[in-house]
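[job 0412] stage=complex_fold ligand=thiamine diphosphate status=START
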Amino acid sequence: MLALTGQVQTQVIGPGTFQELPLEKAFDAVAEWGQTILHPGNATELAALAMKHAIVMRDVAHLVLPDNVQELPGVEDPPARPRSGRLAATGIAPPPDELARAVELLRTAERPAIVVGNGARPHRDEVMALAEHLDAPVISTFKAKGTFPDDHSLGCGVLGRSGIPVASQTVATADCLLVLGASFSNHTSIPTWVPTIQVDLDPMILGKFHPVEVPLWGDIARTVAELQASLLAVDRPEARQAIATRWRRWRAEKVSRRDLVDAHGRLQPALVFEVLGELVPDDAVIAVDVGNNTYSFGHFFECRGRQDVLMSGYLGSIGFALPAALGASVAVRRAGSGRQVVSISGDGGLGQYLAEVTTLSRRASPSLTWCSTTASWPRSVASSSGPSGRCGRQSSSTPTSPSSPPPAVRPGSQSGRLTSCAPRSRAPCPSPTAPAS
Ligand SMILES: Cc1ncc(C[n+]2csc(CCOP(=O)(O)OP(=O)(O)O)c2C)c(N)n1
Ligand SMILES: [Mg+2]
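[job 0412] stage=complex_fold status=DONE, emitting structure tokens
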């Protein structure tokens, strides 16, 4: 990320001038690198360095532009600052002897499972190729939701607090884990007692909280391809069958909730996300917020195809969904792809950036759809499917224990736009926010 901020004029910086702030210091805690541009002569070089820091360190770079500098003419014919030659290729492989240890562990495992974290998101094709080669189930962290589709015969959905029993039951029976680009956050609770191969391009993430059997420092796509080349293809029909049985149970559980209403006539999130799942195209970009609605999205929404889910890391900041969807809609339009962008938030999250509705109506791509809920959806069951009979009628709307069913939302509190949409096999969802142009 590149942050560009304005500053008072250079000739008055220092004494605490009206509206002067030490911006480099203010951004120090959140930016990996920052500089003030004082002269057009080095503006492009500082801009190139800012990009380099943002890309290589995968962090925030910050450039401060004093008012008067913003208005100075640029230098004639500034030298080119090409990316090539200044950024090294990152497709590095782990050392061969470490790879060999990982190969041996995977070769001798009877029930290996792959856990994908957000770091694996750009490498989904390579991960899918390895999973199919090993016939190994694939479990996602919440941040990686959608990286491996839930409708693939090896997909087991999300593990942890925002997850589903298919994932937790599959992980519980694994005798070897291949963890790709995940940080072992306590939100996900990847078991630490199963022999684990961890792959990451950031060496500090490897074995960060506990030792792993084989920490592999390397690019995920490259490492996964090398593992695949060193291992024979395997057929595990029993693994696929077990996954299918777990999905059947979990989907039956969801169906048993879907028609329940509480004492106030409020709908179940299971129903809302089932309908949303039918409406959202296979290649949509879905921005989610922070709140009980996000947990419900984790539990009940099934990702398929090439859907991408955007979220605030570790469910940090409410109000994330709408601005993220706005950004995504601009990126999608620039790429000329026509992908639909969907923003999902609670009333609180939407309220945080309500003013952005103005931006939305003026600037967003016609393919952006936003929806909000007005009730509190509690975090609910993920660790076990349990008997469907426990989904009784509820009137509480406060977060409840994992064994309680979630309360529901008021009829119509989920976006009315969605209920008026045709199923995904028919006409695309109309965009209520579409600007005329
Ligand atoms: C910027 C920020 N402020 C406060 C919080 C704490 N917080 C987490 S969820 C939440 C409420 C979310 O309410 P809403 O958007 O209506 O979603 P719901 O839980 O009702 O689904 C709050 C205040 C936060 N994560 N980020
Ligand atoms: Mg709410």
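The chain has three domains: 2-70, 96-241, 259-424.
[job 0412] exit 0
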